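User: Fold this one for me? It's protein-histidine N-methyltransferase.
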Amino acid sequence: IARSDLVRGKYEGGFKLWECSLDLARHLLKRANAPDGPRLHGADVLELGCGHGVPGIVAAIMGARRVTLCDYNPEVIRALAIPNVRANFVDDEKEVRDRFAYVGGDWGDLDAFVPAQSADVVLAAETIYSTASYARHVRLLRRAMRKPDGVALVAAKRYYFGVGGGTDAFGAAITNAHPDMEVETVETFSDGASNVREILRVRFR
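Assistant: Here's what I get for protein-histidine N-methyltransferase.
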């Protein structure tokens, strides 16, 4: 990730439309409600690091009951996520109010706004570039995912050069510390030239 994309402790890249966000949206469109895909119809969905909110909006279009969009920077939610939601549900302001909620702030501070075991599906894209955030990230997944059938889909690059994170490191951080959880790669994107991108599925065993 280029230095201009992140200002540690102030800005986490939310104004940029990251490619893994689009990967995750496409995955939902292809696999949602398939026998082995995430059950979105009637689901409560939480999107972490939402930025533009594309995967969360797709989840709503696919039938999610309620979608909570979270981003580190509240101004990203105001400038991008909320207008994008309204643009996709332009005919029904009441539906927007009833089906969408928005939360800004650090993952470590979200307990007051994200009830325990409240999400059937957690979505995240490009949120695992820094290993320093893994403890808070996994803690929030464990808190938010509804037991026993909640699922998280995390779209990211296999390795983030210069910062050390990536899908392998994140998967290991979960399975090494939490034997009651499993991590599986459910889709891979590779053109043989650029960084390999993957979608991880995280579940309770």
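One thing worth pointing out: The two ends are 33 Å apart (CA to CA).
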